[in-house]
Amino acid sequence: MDKDGAGSYIFAKASGILGHSFVGERSKILFNQKNLQDLWSLIFRSHPPMIPEVLLARQIEVDAKKRFIEQYTTLINAYDTPDPLLVDQLYIYEAENLKEIGAALCNGEKECPPLADLGAFAQLNYDAWPDIKAITKGSIFSWYDHVPQIHEQQEMEFKVDLQVMRHLWKSLENEKGEDYTALMKIYKNEYVVKNVVWALRLRLFYEMSDEEIAENLICVSKHPGYGDPLAGPALKALELPVDDYNAWSNSKYKNLVNPHTEGVVWTINPNWMEKRSRIEVNRMALNVFHQYPMSVCSLIAWYKVKHFELNCIRTAVESLRLNISSEEAMNTVGINYGGVNNG
């Protein structure tokens, strides 16, 4: 299908999928279900399988992710030659697969763990299990050529995440015009705040120095310094006193700051900031989807919105499994958290 024809078809198809998805106000419906069987019927519009609840909870998450990936790959397959940035979004799930494989091999497991099926877009050679070097050969993860020891597993997983972000950033920089401007705004809002949140957690809960924190931040430059577009803002945010509400409420992060009650000791809450950020990014993506129809950025925005829906489904499953109230569960993902709605 030619690019213009594919663009029209994809936008119509993506719009139809969103219309039946649990996004915006409809995301709350996920948290109004009484049990996992009802949640299954709501999401998949079919009778739930007759299996124990523990297995049903897992199956909902697996099938929801499978459907999301299938929907996305079907959309980008409509292009004769999909924009590299569209294909590169799937590296996020390729990275998840690689981390699952690494953990399984590290633990001495004999069977390959369940993995996300990326079809023709898979970059890793999953048939080469359990040869990790053969699995990653020829991919951006080719450096991951040995089974990590337990003590280095976390470091390897961080390098995988760093590799994905740098690859996505490089692809994003190849975009032009309105697509580039709109997508850069979404990416910066999402990943800058993730770094700020992580930096604050390392400061507040682990009492790390700025130098130690910098080494644990996602960056797109060789070094996570002040000049890096993702790590730099997080390092600057560390200059704000963690107990000064006025400093934070007058910063660029003012919309993400937890409330202050007069007479009560206040400290910046990274969990609150993270939840509010999810809603902001989701709202931004919804706006971009409708504002730039039939474009690369509209489909990336669709991906972001559907990814948020997937997180909501996972949280709804956990809330039912652990008997957590719907209000608390919605707060976990940020729905109506602090008066902010994700519609």
Write the layout of secondary structure elements.
Layout: H1 3-19, H2 36-44, H3 53-77, H4 84-88, H5 91-106, H6 132-136, H7 153-172, H8 177-206, H9 210-214, H10 231-237, H11 245-249, H12 270-291, H13 296-321, H14 326-333
Helix pairs in contact: 1-13, 2-3, 3-13, 5-7, 8-10, 8-12, 8-13, 12-13, 13-14
Verbal overview:
The two termini are 33 Å apart. 36% of the residues are buried. It contains 14 helices and no strands. The protein has 343 residues and is mainly α. It has helices at 3-19, 36-44, 53-77, 84-88, 91-106, 132-136, 153-172, 177-206, 210-214, 231-237, 245-249, 270-291, 296-321, 326-333.
Features:
343 residues; disordered C terminus; mainly alpha; 58% helix; 0% strand
- What's the N-to-C terminus distance? 33 Å
Query: Major β-sheet, in short?
Result: none
- Please work out how many helical segments DSSP would assign: 14
**Which structural class is indicated by helix and strand composition?**
mainly alpha
Strand content: under 5%
Which descriptor suits the 3D outline?
globular
Considering DSSP H and I runs of 4 or more, what fraction of the residues is helical? 55-70%
Order of helices and strands: HHHHHHHHHHHHHH
What radius of gyration results from the CA coordinates?
Answer: 21 Å
Mean pLDDT: 93
Low-pLDDT stretches are: 337-343
The tally of beta strands, per DSSP, is 0
Provide a short characterization of the protein structure:
This protein is mainly alpha-helical and 343 residues long. It is built from 14 helices and no strands.
